[in-house]
Description:
By secondary structure, this protein is an alpha+beta fold. The protein has 17 helices and 17 strands. It has five domains: about 1-165, PAS domain (Beta-Lactamase); about 215-265, no CATH class; about 265-360, Beta-Lactamase (2-Layer Sandwich); about 365-435, Helix Hairpins, CATH 1.10.287; about 440-590, Heat Shock Protein 90 (2-Layer Sandwich), CATH 3.30.565. It has helices at about 1-55, 60-65, 65-80, 115-120, 165-215, 230-265, 280-290, 290-295, 300-305, 305-320, 360-395, 405-435, 445-455, 460-465, 485-500, 545-550, 560-570; strands spanning about 85-90, 95, 125-130, 140-150, 150-160, 265-270, 275-280, 325-330, 335-345, 350-360, 440-445, 470, 480, 505-515, 515-525, 570-575, 585-590.
Amino acid sequence: MLIKKSFKTKLILSYILVVFISFGFMAFFLDKSLEENSLHNIESALITQARLIEPQIPAESLKKEDMASLSATVKNLSQKAGCRITVITIKGKVLADSEKLLLEIPQMENHQGRTEVRAALSGGLGIDIRHSSTLKIDMLYMALPIKDKGAITGIIRLALPLHSVQKTLFTIRKIVMLGSIFALAIAVLLGSLLASRTIEPINKMIHVSRQFSAGDFTRRVFSASSDEIGELAATFNKMAQDIEDKIGQTKEQNQKLAAIFNSMIEGIIVVDKGNHIISVNPTIEKLFGVSKNEAEGKLFLEAIRNNDISEFINSVLNKRESISGEITLAYPIHRIFETSATPIFDNNVVSGCLVVIHDITEIRRLETVRSDFVANVSHELKTPLTSIKGFIETLLEGALEDKDNSRAFLNIIQEHAERLNNLVNDLLSLSHLESKEIILSKIDFNLRQQAEEVILGFSAQLRKKNIEIKNELQTGLSIRADKNRLEQVFTNLIDNAIKFNKDKGNIKIHYQDVDGKIKIIIEDSGIGIPAKDIPRIFERFYRVDKARSRELGGTGLGLSIVKHIVELHDGTIGVESVEGFGSKFWFVLPK
Length: 591
């Protein structure tokens, strides 16, 4: 509203100023003209009266300086002429004055220095306007020389007060002032009406422009006039339509770019030529634990403390060439990145850098796992195959005829063949589980009863090592899961608890309710697991004690199989152990 009022006020004031200046000039010139005409008329009248009065001044009285006679004469003439009359000698002495008493005349100052008197003494006509200190008003003085036989014998001066002229001028000025005030009032009224009509479409444009600034470009300005205002309104509407179309296109493009930018699995960092971050995508936020709002506008190293990536960016900004390579991130977690940095050009000038970071940690891990897997499988297969081959060669070389040793050799060959069979079965089972194509056959069954059935299958091993096992699962504990797969989990975990337990040791199976889920715990009093080995215990072919594990017939795949089965049931698995004080394996399943 402040802008509207200000413009309207300026428009009205412009009308008032024009009227005021016009009337001011007119009043000024009128006043001067009237004043000059009035003074000219008065001067003409005084000159005429002075020329008529001059011959009536007695020459003898003037020569004798007869003040009494001259005073009587000028008072009589003054009444007829209606003006003040003064008689002055050529030396400036006042001899008579129609406005003074005879006794006051000698006290009057010498008039020889008065302007009009000096002009008259020079033989001409003297006129002057000044303030009378005697009468306290402005007076018009006119002096004429009194001549006798061509010689100046004295001066006659007529004076007329100008209050009548001033009164007339005041009346005229008053009329002009009232007229000016009336004209200004009319100017204000007409100016307001004209300004309102002019401002109204502008106000509409201001209102609509505010709607534009709020993002609503559907508003339009309607103007019926065909003048510049109407043309401005039409241009304004066209501009709004063009902006609306451009914004729509820009929004659509930005949405597409934002969708691509935010959905990319690669991390994206955009920096300007000053190494300040312009934008990062959600992948970068997750990888480096930074917030987009906090990172934008900061120097790269202030937001993301990684010198390797910073060196990539600096190299691109300086050399104006793309660069790529692998970067290893050690903190906060270990990651391996394939990083590419490309310069951003604006009019053939580098204005920034685009960094694309692809997390290849899992690829490198899988490559390592594959390499380790091949090595482990080769090693696991080589040992029994070497033994089988060796004993077969021994038998073929003649030991077959030795009935006592040949049977022992065949038993060893059978054990190694069984070991190979178990290894192949475990590999096939693990491969099937990792394929994610397995379909679980979930049914409701009693968990305690299943654990009892598995325990029953280990009766011989338990008696052999004199191990006590307690099944503390609740009698009516029921779960919905794949019974065969879960049996495999119990089998592998109880088998390990027996193999790596102490003689006369104990095993306890119990459970806990955890946030609506069942946590099954298998606890033993065995040899335990060193702290350094716990993070890798569920890896394929990983053994804490490789020699003992092979001696006990383990393939190194049991815990990996258990982990995959539990995860297929949307569960989790873990272990707690202290070396020399037993282990506690647990897995959590939804009820």
